Task: structure prediction
Amino acid sequence: MSLKRVVITGIGVVSPFGNGVAELVRGMEEGRSAVRFMEGWDRYNGLQSLVAAPVEMRGEKDIPRQKRRSMGRMSIFAAQAADEALADAGICLADENLWRVGCVIGSTMGSAKSINDTFETMLPDRDLSRLNSTMFFQCMSHTVTANVAQYLGLNGTVMATSAACASALHALGVGYDLIRLGRQEVLLCGGAEELHPTVTGSFDILFATSTKYNENPQKTPRPFDRDRDGLVCGEGSGILVLEEYERAVARNARIYAELTGFCTTANGLHVSQSNRDSMVTCMRQAIEEAGLAPEGIDYINAHATATIQGDQEEAEAIRELFGPAVPVSCIKGYIGHTLGAAGSIELAAALKMMEQGVIYPTHNLETVSQECAGIGHVMQPLKKQIRSILKNGFAFGGINAALVCTKI
Result:
């Protein structure tokens, strides 16, 4: 059986810079940081990291209340990003066979705020009668993809991926397979995440968060930098329209890029520590599936969470495969680590860089750490023709993902 080709025809984003892809790009162009001190978080005993990159909720009431009642923040973000992605792709669902249109959207878990509120409501007196019926739908692990499907009236494949920071790339990889196998024609793929003190706290207790910049929040996170001290959580959603190539050409769609390679691997060694060797294997296999050699990659959008060990392992893996020849940057210095949404928001940014012929630098990278040296760090805007992108995503649990997009 011959596999079908898969292309990206639409992009939608809700990020800490605001609603829309244009706001994300503008924030990077202007070299801004969306990270700020979080008022009220200091009430949580033991929480050391008090900075994050929140989204200002806008336009949520444009979603009908009947649909919105079952949505937490993350589902609202995804619904808004999905609307933008469909409009960008020029797809009107009223004209589609909705049995051939679906969505695959990942997150680390259900709505963090809704989960917290549920237990705060129920546990003092162990009184389940205080809970309303919509709270479950906000808390369930597939809340985002289910709510987006209900909001849009989709009848095709609806799946949720949950692999921490690799969730969105896993969603894109699943979508890639579903379309090239002919099971679906159009898929909305990506991830969504929301902020809550308990989310940052889960990283805090692992000593993975940035704690030294609470009084100077816009100086963190610092991917690959000598003075990095951990990640900063963000929130939002990135949704991409994946479409079968012949169908996209037939309707004269604008094509951002073709998805040509994907790989996911596990290191099987440690639940929280990254591993260079498994990263190398993951990147190499994705590149080989794309029919490329390492020198055929024009830009690497790194995972680069600004943790001490994670950045070192990723830099060493990139150095082994690519040396200093390929430009490398990441966008977490601008908007923080959006966790389950990171892969798709960051890929959206990379696709806009491909379109514009410019690579935005790694924000807050001022002095490259010695253990992260030897790769092509982008520290100033770089004009470059980009024909191929490698997007990395490396998650707790020892889960790696790498995806290759090629310009047609």
